[in-house]
Amino acid sequence: MNLEQARVNMIEQQIRTWEVLDKDVLNTLVVVRREAFVPDAFQALAFVDTEIPLPGGENMLSPKLEARLLQEAAVQHTESVLEIGTGSGYMAALLANHARHVTSIEILPELKSIAEKNLADYGVANVNVELGNGARGWAGSGTRAAPWDVIMISGALPVLPHVFLEQLSLGGRLLAVIGEAPIMSACLVTRTAQDAWSEIKLFETCIKPLRETEAPSAFHF
After folding, report:
1. Chain segment 69-127, per-residue pLDDT in tens
2. Residue 217's pLDDT is what?
3. Residue 212, pLDDT score
4. Can you give the three-state secondary structure of 132-194, one letter per residue?
5. What is the pLDDT of residue 215?
6. At what angle do helices 63-73 and 23-31 cross, to 10 degrees?
7. Which residues pair with 189 in a beta bridge?
8. For a Cys-Cys bond, which of 3, 62, 129, 149 suits 79, CB 3.0-4.6 Å?
9. Phi, psi angles (nearest 5°) of residue 62
């Protein structure tokens, strides 16, 4: 496989056609090499428009979805990011290329270990992976604590728990896929004031839900 040509094809044929045109995001897709975070058994699928299986029955999101969510998050180099659902560590690495620091939460010990190794092998120093259930928010501790400037939820939620909104900083953004199969919506939520948030539904999709989610009272805008 010609990796560099496959990467170019992925960006030109999948990513750009999905309205991902931000130069910094496109550059990140070149700098952070996706194949370094794909399991060995699935290297041939590293640049294909599909989800890739991970241990524990989880999977990596499709390249175009990862790129679109990264673009919509508009992460700045001074910002702290919370990611729920580390997986292989690839989205955390993408976010880290733009952020000051990323805290990523993974519920499966096996995936936590895989992600930490992938990130370390790739030299990503501004990500810490924590073991736990982040489907109901994550307060963190010390300098790695809420409020977060960006929250990226890398798995679907049936509804968005209000705690996530409270854990956003003023002006902070949250990206989440909300709903139940077969119809889910990727949403961008921005905290506009102490007690106010705005929501934009970006597109419809369908991805694997986070584990151990609950159905709390949804927050209505």
Report:
1. 999 999 999 999 999 999 999 999 999 999 999 999 999 999 999 999 999 999 999 99
2. 54
3. 86
4. CCCECECCEECCEECCEEEEEEEEEECCCCHHHHHCEEEEEEEEEEEEECCEEEEEEEEEEEC
5. 64
6. 130
7. 174, 199
8. 149
9. -65, 150
Using CB atoms within 10 Å of the CB of residue 201, give its burial: 0 to 12 exposed, 13 to 18 middle, 19+ buried. exposed
Main-chain phi, psi angles of 7, to 5 degrees: -65, -45
DSSP the chain: --HHHHHHHIIIIIIGGGT---HHHHHHHHHS-GGGGS-GGGGGGTTSSS-EE-GGG-EEPPHHHHHHHHHHHT--TT-EEEEE--TTSHHHHHHHTTSSEEEEEES-HHHHHHHHHHHHHTT--SEEEEES--BTB--EETTEESSEEEEEEEEEESS--HHHHHTEEEEEEEEEEEEETTEEEEEEEEEEETTEEEEEEEEEE--PBPTT----PPP--
- Per-residue confidence (pLDDT) for residue 206, from 0 to 100: 96
Cα–Cα separations (whole angstroms), residue 111 to 47, 79, 119: 21, 25, 12
Whole-number pLDDT of residue 201: 97
Residues of the chain with pLDDT under 70: 1, 214-221
Q: In what order do the strands lie in the sheet with 101-106?
A: 127-131, 101-106, 80-84, 148-157, 168-180, 183-193, 196-205
